[in-house]
Amino acid sequence: MIYALILFAITYVLMLAFSKYRPVIALCSAVVFMVSGMLPADQIFSSIDFNVIMMIAGTMGLVQLFIDSRMPARLADLVMERVGTVQAAAVALALFAGIISAFVDNVATVLMVAPVALEICRKLKTNPVPFIIGIAVSSNLQGAATLVGDTTAIMLGSYADMSFLDFFFYKGKPGMFFAVELGALISAAILAFIFRKEKGRIERNSTPTPVNDYVPSFLLLGTIVLLIAASFIPEKPSITNGLICLTLLAIGLVYNFFKKKNLDAITGPLKAIDFETIGILVGLFLIIGGISNMGVIDAAANLLAHLGGGNVFILYTIIVWASVLISAFIDNIPYTATMLPVVTGLAANLGIDPTLFYFGLLSGATLGGNITPIGASANITGIGILRKEGYEVKTSDFPRIGIPFTLAAVIPAYIYLWVFFH
């Protein structure tokens, strides 16, 4: 276990220090985990979240068709007509991404909203890096708002037998949704403060950008609708969302081919798939699988369980803030899966309802990924989009927005959940 932890720590330090080489670092570390036997051969494929990989590939291709249709440019015009300053545009886009992310996977949300943000920044001749980071962290936040917003929320709902409505009102009390929205309001004010210097006025475009094809927009909208609908299907295959995204991409490619009558109609959108981003994610999935197999995550969970000394408030505090810190570096899915039975046992030993610990765990684990650029799949996806546009995101760029945003979102939820569920 010690060797796995050391290799894991070295990998993350190198990825944070050498941002240009993250795919190579992640994949090389994954190879070491596999060759050394720390990740057994029979666990390699199960460690990779193919649903996320397929969703990214399918949505990236769809988004390229969406961009080619010039719909993002048209939406950018609409946003610019309704907001007065660059600051307002940045906050509005982050909130818009958050609303979508409450019902659609965070990665898909970033891929859908980012083209609009890029188009706005292109027209305003401003740096898109903070815009995309704002969209990513807001997407991560709202993933905990509903049962269908994030994998961690789905896991909690399944484990605790919660319904979609239980996230709004649970056992006669306002539920997780309101804790998240309270954090969202305060974090929106933080975003406004971060963008306080962006006071440039937005000039309205007298001739709005014409859209040359509405089919890609309908396909993207159909993706959102189908992802929401699929979230209500019990015991569905784990790759359902990925299959939805790839199927709609295939429909879009066939349509594009018959419309343009050339091979570029297919190869163009496929070239938009960012294999560097996919490489980082595959590497990280394998690394997390390795440290999980070696007992690192179990050890972290057991350590948390022994730190509270039987005091409910101390245990709750540890669960929330340790989850924030751990999820900044460890994928929150295996961490949440490990911690759910741990916090259930803690609550049983204390003779209390486990809801406080459940929601505290969800809040901390979902939002911790906002602290580092590689703490969540949505962050990695956003950085990949920026890299393709020629913008390199420094390791310091992300915490500048992610840390104050996380604190502004977690602290209100932390207080709220204690008041209503202790």
UniProtKB/TrEMBL annotation:
InterPro entries: Arsenical_pump_ArsB, Cit_transptr-like_dom, Diverse_Ion_Transporter. One of its GO terms (cellular component) is plasma membrane. The keyword Membrane applies. Keywords: Cell membrane, Membrane, Transmembrane, Transmembrane helix, Transport. Its main location: membrane. It is a multi-pass membrane protein. It is found in: Cell membrane. The keyword DNA-binding does not apply. Residues 13-357 form the Citrate transporter-like domain. One of its GO terms (molecular function) is arsenite transmembrane transporter activity. Pfam families: CitMHS (PF03600). The chain crosses the membrane at residues 44-67, 88-118, 175-194, 214-233, 239-258, 278-297, 303-326, 333-352, 358-380, 401-421. Belongs to the CitM (TC 2.A.11) transporter family. This is Arsenic transporter.
